[in-house]
User: Which sequence fits this backbone?
């Protein structure tokens, strides 16, 4: 996999989350910079992984409409006590096919940027915890020479936030994934021209794409932010399991990061 200096740090920052959020005033914005280490599969279903050591930008913005925090970068369009509606953003890094045995000789996978609507429904909350049902649906766009619209991805999920465990904030999420035919074609399709011994031509359909369990922790200590995540992915029940590019049906991803927060806004805002 080719190292990415753009997409991977953004993805790490969004996964590992922002600092502890408490019911008190917080700076409108915070900026920092640090480093992180990730161990990620080349793509979901790949039997090869790569370890990345990357710079990690730390960006938090707590505006009324635009936000960048633990839940990602988004534009809040509706916010009530129980229901939020926003536009969310995500990104994933590229893969050089020559670095992946299953894809050798095929076209490289481009970096992907995803954006789309997201509905958050608060199912319950109490002192120090909050349980949400999140329903994001995103359009995937390729970046670079192999750009353009790449399909749709939906990841309905249950998310539990524990906001203060001896100074640590903990998040646990369980998600199902659905992808349309065009998205699956990008990652798991094999054209007749790309067929090779052990890699027959294959055209996937759309539908279920497995799911994942994710655990993340973060902590703010003075001007330092610490974070880590562990994610288990499963392709069980995926519509493209017969693809010759699926070499492994389960895998783990892990990442840790540390950032130094060097600038904060003088303006304070209330945040729950």
Assistant:
């Amino acid at each position: 996999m080719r190292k990415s200096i753009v997409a991977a740090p953004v993805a790490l920052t969004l996964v590992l989350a922002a600092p502890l959020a408490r019911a008190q005033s917080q700076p409108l914005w915070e900026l920092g910079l640090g480093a992180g280490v990730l161990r990620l599969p080349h793509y979901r279903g790949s039997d090869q992984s790569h370890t990345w050591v990357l710079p990690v930008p730390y960006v938090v913005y707590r505006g009324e409409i635009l936000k960048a925090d633990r839940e990602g970068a988004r534009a809040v369009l509706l916010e009530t006590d129980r229901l939020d509606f926003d536009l969310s953003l995500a990104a994933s890094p590229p893969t050089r096919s020559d670095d992946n045995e299953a894809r050798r000789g095929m076209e490289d996978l481009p970096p992907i940027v995803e954006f789309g609507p997201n509905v958050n429904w608060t199912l319950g909350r109490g002192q120090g915890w909050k349980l949400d049902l999140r329903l994001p649906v995103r359009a995937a766009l390729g970046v670079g020479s192999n750009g353009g619209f790449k399909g749709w991805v939906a990841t309905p999920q249950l998310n539990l936030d524990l906001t203060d465990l001896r100074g640590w904030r903990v998040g646990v999420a369980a998600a199902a994934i659905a992808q349309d035919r065009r998205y699956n074609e990008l990652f798991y399709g094999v054209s007749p021209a790309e067929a090779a011994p052990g890699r027959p031509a294959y055209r996937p359909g759309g539908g279920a794409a497995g799911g994942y369990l994710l655990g993340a922790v973060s902590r703010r200590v003075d001007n330092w932010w610490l974070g880590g995540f562990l994610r288990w992915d499963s392709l069980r029940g995926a519509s493209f399991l017969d693809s010759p590019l699926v070499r492994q049906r389960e895998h783990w991803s892990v990442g840790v990061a540390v950032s130094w927060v060097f600038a904060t806004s003088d303006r304070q805002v209330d945040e729950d």
